[in-house]
Amino acid sequence: MKSWQEDLLGIGEAPCEVEVFRKVEAAAAALGFEYCAYGLRMPLPLSNPATVMLNNYPVAWRERYANEGYIHVDPTVLHGRQSCAPLVWSNEVFANVPQLWDEARSFGLCFGWAQSSLDALGVGGMLTLARSGGPLTEAELQNNEQRMRWLVSISHLALSRVVSARRAATRMPDLTAREIEVLKWTADGKSAQEIADILVLSKNTVDFHVKNAVSKLQTANKTAAVVRAAFLGLLN
Question: pTM here?
Answer without folding.
Answer: 0.74
